Task: structure prediction
Amino acid sequence: MPDIMLLRKKMDESGMTVKAITEKAGILRETFYNRLKGYGEFTASEIVSLSNVLHLTASERDKIFFGE
Result:
């Protein structure tokens, strides 16, 4: 289960809107919101895209998506 609170914190820190983040990451906004609500899991490509858009370090990515 992803750390949604930490993901939201990183999203806030980015200064981008959800619309901008999802467009840059190539994820449908509806799909992204479903992932945040726990409906389905983030795919590997979504994790990579979000990591790039939000400039996540490997450590941050692992904490958010893999609970490490």
About this structure: The first helix runs from residue 4 to 14. The chain has a mean pLDDT of 96. The CA atoms of residues 33 and 39 lie 9 Å apart. The chain has five helices and no strands.
